[in-house]
Automatic annotation (TrEMBL), chain A:
Gene it is expressed from: Sept3
Spans traversing the lipid bilayer: none
UniProt entry keywords in alphabetical sequence: Cytoplasm, GTP-binding, Nucleotide-binding
Species annotation: Sagittarius serpentarius (Secretary bird)
Principal subcellular localization: cytoplasm
Region (Disordered), start-end ranges: 1-25, 328-350
A GO cellular-component term linked to this record: cytoplasm
Pfam family, one: Septin
InterPro entries tied to this protein: G_SEPTIN_dom, P-loop_NTPase, Septin, Septin3
Name of the protein this chain belongs to: Neuronal-specific septin-3
Record GO terms (molecular function): GTP binding
All copies of domain Septin-type G, residue ranges: 58-331
Source taxon at top rank: Eukaryota
TrEMBL record, chain B:
Protein name per UniProt: SEP10 protein
PROSITE patterns to which the protein is assigned, alphabetical: G_SEPTIN (PS51719)
Protein's gene: Sept10
Keywords noted in UniProt: Coiled coil, GTP-binding, Nucleotide-binding
UniProt cross-references to InterPro entries, sorted A to Z: G_SEPTIN_dom, P-loop_NTPase, Septin
Domain called Septin-type G: residue spans: 30-296
Length: 350, 417
């Protein structure tokens, strides 16, 4: 009982009368309604507060994955981001300790709270990535894991009796750690990002950026951006998902200037100028992690947590998950139609 | 509650406390939807109340009492307050309670509500769907207008509310409450509530699980049904212009809490519980509709041997079913087509034969007539030849006679002859 677009245009927005009873009633269309001017305060804007309260009560899930070769500081960085031991560092293993033979996926979840907001944070580590002699297809276990989470969610969503709140284990953000070689991206980096940027939000970061001078950093970043562009790798925030001009200008700046973020992580504090700061102590000085002149950690943190956290989740849900779902249902022959008349536009049937 | 997750404490400021703000910012960008259904008899004060609630004059034409059946009229408006954009849809019942036979009165309403759920479900089931930009038309709240008789509910009221209480949040309202005195009002309210309870009608309860609103909501729950008076006309009281109804014996002020429950209704409906109404619609009523609908279609979460049916199996099975059906229909159509072609061919062939026969007959006729004509022609020609000969002879004779004898001897010739 869908009216075609031509029909909808012709019907006045003012009133739609349901024909006789028992016939399928007309569904009101998108509002082309009157802009009613208010003559006095009603209280509609209180819905913001109502919504805020509701979300605080339900809490949030956030799942972040870190990918990169061993020793690039992944765990340290995540711990610095979330100011707690959310990821256990593989503290200087030696050759005797096992290097994973294949890529392992380790997901560890914690609950953290700030300002009345409860967050269930899951950090997904990928030890063994890029560490073997032959690293062919080492992204496959990672892609498999990501798709498995989509599958889990889909299964829950398709149930007849559904949970009130489907647990969200989907990967919202994947931090990819680039070695600070100063030259260019490695073939493995390109291969991984090419494959995975299609299924998950990838945020490339340059690890251990304290090995580069400012000039080297700028040049390296430019080269990396160029290489990513040449190879058609769309990292988050993806150009095609900018919702409006405001988003576009904000994101353009991030895409073309700030990213990839050159970061340094640390969980140790030192005294600098009378303040206690997170940093790395070297013979030639203390690198302050949250000092923007030293490294871009603060930019990454603000980007991922303070401004784009919700957006990361929404892009994952509205785009990556939907893509997975559509593909999955198409492969399976699709969902049967609810009524026989649904033959027109969409491919919900063969 | 935390599913065995360890709680960690933060050693510094992280910043995800801004998450609700990020979410709210996005919601504001998208705008909010709110859909109200007003059920009540013609003239029960629905339109006036809505106008009063939203401080606007929604142009709603007055309807007659003589409609043959109940119909629903939906209108959508965009209201803006500070930076909040609200897409408000008001659905009014037209002709409710006017018919002599009211048996079918509530059915169009039920159908309408179901149709909105159905539309959402269809969207949700599509392969390529866009739920986040879907214009939600599901009814979030139903304001049921009870006539201010002062006694109790009408049978129609009970019947209608009972058929709707599992599909929509119902808030019962006593319309045009200025015709009831205070003492009668409390008795009336008590009667209504006890009747609802004894008939098992589930009306919407303002939520009491959140401490910040539980107190006020509990109090308000006790004031149901709200006795309201609506007015878009303003009267000067003291030095202010207020919405009121002016009578010879006094003025009923809409926003005076001593006069009616209008302020309570507005407070509960809009300022406190709008979001909860939307959530209940989605999480409870819609889910229940969806469950029934999918089960109707033959989907199960548990298979025949009590094993959970996998997604793939269910879809494969349905797909096979529909594919076979499609093939059968195709075959049927093909057969029909072949049959029709044969028949047509036969008809055409026969027609051809007929035409051929006619043609031959005509040819024959033509030949015969031609022969006849030729004979006649011959005869005629012979006659002409004979006549010419005779004519020639006659002329010859005549010319001979006129040469040999003068005119006088004509008598002698005549005598001799």
């Amino acid at each position: 009982p869908h009216a075609g677009p031509a029909d909808r245009k012709n019907e006045a927005a003012m009133s739609e009368l349901v024909p006789e009873p028992r016939q399928k009633p007309v569904v009101p269309m998108k509002p082309t309604g009157i802009n009613a001017s208010l003559l006095g305060y009603i209280g509609i804007d209180t819905i913001i507060e109502q919504m805020r309260k509701k979300t605080m009560k339900t809490g949030f899930d956030f799942n972040i994955m870190v990918v990169g070769q061993s020793g690039l500081g992944k765990s340290t960085l995540v711990n610095t981001l979330f100011k707690s031991q959310v990821s256990r560092k593989s503290s200087g293993w030696n050759r005797e300790e096992k290097i994973p033979k294949t890529v392992e996926i380790k997901a560890i979840g914690h609950v953290i709270e700030e300002g009345g907001v409860k967050m269930k944070l899951t950090v997904i580590d990928t030890p063994g990535f890029g560490d073997q002699i032959n690293n062919e297809n080492c992204w496959e276990p990672i892609e498999k894991y990501i798709n498995e989470q989509y599958e889990k969610f889909l299964k829950e969503e398709v149930n007849i009796a559904r949970k009130k709140r489907i647990p969200d284990t989907r990967v919202h953000c994947c931090l990819y750690f680039i070695s600070p070689t100063g030259h260019s991206l490695r073939p493995l980096d390109l291969e991984f990002m090419k494959h995975l940027s299609k299924v998950v939000n990838i945020i490339p970061v340059i690890a251990k950026a304290d090995t580069m001078t400012l000039e080297e950093k700028t040049e390296f970043k430019q080269r990396v951006r160029k290489e990513l562009e040449v190879n058609g790798i769309e990292f988050y925030p993806q150009k095609e998902f900018d919702e409006d001009l405001e988003d576009k200008t904000e994101n353009d700046k991030i895409r073309q200037e700030s990213m990839p973020f050159a970061v340094v992580g640390s969980d140790k504090e030192y005294q600098v100028n009378g303040k206690r700061v997170l940093g790395r102590k070297t013979p030639w000085g203390i690198i302050e992690v949250e000092n923007l002149t030293h490294c871009e950690f603060a930019l990454l943190r603000d980007f991922v947590i303070r401004t784009h956290l919700q957006d990361l989740k929404e892009v994952t849900h509205n785009i990556h998950y939907e893509t997975y779902r559509a593909k999955r249902l198409n492969d399976n022959g699709g969902l049967p139609p609810m009524t026989v008349e649904t033959e027109e536009n969409h491919e919900s049937n063969m | 509650q935390n599913d065995g997750y360890r709680t960690l404490s933060l050693s510094g400021h992280v910043g995800f406390g801004s998450l609700p703000d990020q979410l709210v910012k996005k919601s504001i960008k998208q705008g909010f939807c709110f859909n109200i259904l007003c059920i009540g008899e013609t003239g029960s004060g629905k339109s006036t109340l809505i106008n009063s609630l939203f401080n606007t004059n929604f142009d709603d034409p007055v309807s007659t009492h003589f409609l043959p059946s109940v119909q629903l009229r939906a209108q959508t408006y965009e209201l803006q307050e500070s930076n909040v954009l609200l897409n408000l849809t008001i659905v009014n019942t037209v002709g409710f309670g006017d018919q002599i036979n009211k048996e079918d009165s509530y059915q169009p309403i039920v159908d309408y509500i179901d149709a909105q759920f159905e539309a959402y479900l269809q969207e949700e089931l599509k392969i390529k769907r866009s739920l986040f930009s879907y214009h939600d038309t599901r009814i979030h709240v139903c304001l049921y207008f009870i006539s201010p008789t002062g006694h109790s509910l009408k049978t129609l009221d009970l019947l209608t509310m009972k058929s709707l209480d599992s599909k929509v949040n119902i808030i019962p309202i006593i319309g045009k409450a200025d015709s009831i005195s205070k003492t009668e009002l409390q008795k009336f309210k008590n009667n209504i509530m006890s009747e609802l309870v004894s008939n098992g009608v589930q009306i919407y309860q303002f939520p009491t699980d959140d401490e910040s609103v539980s107190k006020i909501n509990t109090i308000m729950n006790g004031h149901l049904p709200f006795a309201v008076v609506g007015s878009t006309e303003e009267v000067k009281i003291g030095n202010k212009m207020v919405k009121a109804r002016q009578y010879p014996w006094g003025t009923v002020q809409v926003e005076n809490e001593n006069h009616c429950d209008f302020v309570k209704l507005r407070e509960m409906l809009i300022c406190t519980n709008m979001e909860d109404l939307r959530e209940q619609t989605h999480a409870r009523h819609y889910e229940s509709y969806r469950r029934c609908r999918l089960e109707e279609m033959g989907f199960r979460d548990i298979g025949p041997e009590n094993k959970p049916v996998s997604l793939q199996e269910a879809y494969e099975a349905k797909r096979q079913e529909f594919y076979l059906e499609l093939q059968r229909k195709e075959e049927e159509m093909r057969q029909q087509f072949v049959q029709r072609v044969k028949e047509k061919e036969a008809v055409l062939k026969e027609a051809e034969q007929q035409v051929q026969a006619k043609f031959e007959h005509r040819m024959l006729m033509h030949q015969q007539v031609k022969l006849k004509l030729e004979k006649k022609k011959k005869v005629l020609e012979d006659e002409i030849a004979m006549f010419i000969e005779k004519k020639a002879n006659a002329e010859l004779l005549q010319s001979q006679a006129s040469v040999s004898t003068p005119v006088v001897s004509l008598k002698r010739d005549k005598d001799r002859k």
